[in-house]
Amino acid sequence: MSMSETLELVSANRSFGGWHKRYRHYSRALDCDMEFAVYLPPQAESERVPLLWWLSGLTCNDENFMQKAGAQRIAAELGIAIVCPDTSPRGTDLPGEHDSYDLGSGAGFYVNATQAPWKPHYRMYDYIVEELPSVVRQHFPVNGRESISGHSMGGHGALILALRHPGRFSSVSAFSPIVNPMNCPWGQKAFTSYLGEDQSTWRQYDACELVANGASRQRLFIDQGEADQFLEEQLKPERLEAVCDAHDHPLTLRRQPGYDHSYFFIASFIEEHLRYHAEHLMKS
């Protein structure tokens, strides 16, 4: 086996009859060691199961969702595995990598960087689309049916991956996603650093642009808290709503009164998202 196919078990915890496990492996796409988490429901001990990818937000790693969202109980009932990757390369010690929470470590934005010093390592798009799925399919009892979800920066990641790969995911959902990164401070900072000043190269990583260009017809399911502290400056769901309306793209956007940007919000509605994905994953 090559290095990229070798997994090192970091930890294992029994959970609702299944297993939450963390693994470390060398990533060729990112040229560094990476960790990811997987929840295997009880059904995985006797059969192959469908898979939900969860992409996390700024400052997070593979642990936040698995520890805070409370997803395992419902995943165990539904027989769905969950894989939670990290949000950026780690340990590369690039200049500026640790200077701010919204660029560098913990802030990969699910793009393939083209600019120095990020280009050799910050290739999270390839890692999530190609390399890690290959590792997961090789090592775990999954049946090839996949859905994807995420939060904030990870919601952005889930939307662009689903839109750019029609048919790849049975369903897609997001909590508080960055829907128009080309036109918000978080996205502009990251895209300028990772992709350069030419904004034409940014469009492939912007959900609003992808919908406008007819990249896919897949229904988008989004929950957004109305008390989210980042709602007006960074998230701007009304922009995605407008472009979906203009292009007749199927969208379910639920505005949830009183909810903020935190995992309290995610934990409150994760069951509905998991059941939504299960309906699509179980279709023949």
TrEMBL record:
User: EC number(s) of the enzyme?
Assistant: 3.1.2.12
How far does the signal peptide extend, from start to end residue? none
Q: InterPro entries recorded for this chain?
A: AB_hydrolase_fold (IPR029058), Esterase-like (IPR000801), S-formylglutathione_hydrol (IPR014186)
Name the catalysed reactions: S-formylglutathione + H2O = formate + glutathione + H(+)
- Record-level Gene Ontology MF annotations: S-formylglutathione hydrolase activity
Task: Give one Pfam family, short name only.
Answer: Esterase
Q: What SUPFAM superfamilies does the database record attribute to this sequence? A: alpha/beta-Hydrolases (SSF53474)
Kindly report, in one word, the top-level EC class recorded for this enzyme: hydrolase
The UniProt keywords, alphabetically, are:
Hydrolase, Serine esterase
Task: Family membership, please give it.
Answer: Belongs to the esterase D family.
- NCBIfam families from the UniProt entry: fghA_ester_D
Q: What does this protein do?
A: Serine hydrolase involved in the detoxification of formaldehyde.
The name this protein goes by in its record: S-formylglutathione hydrolase
Q: Per UniProt, what is the name of the gene that codes for the protein in this document?
A: fghA
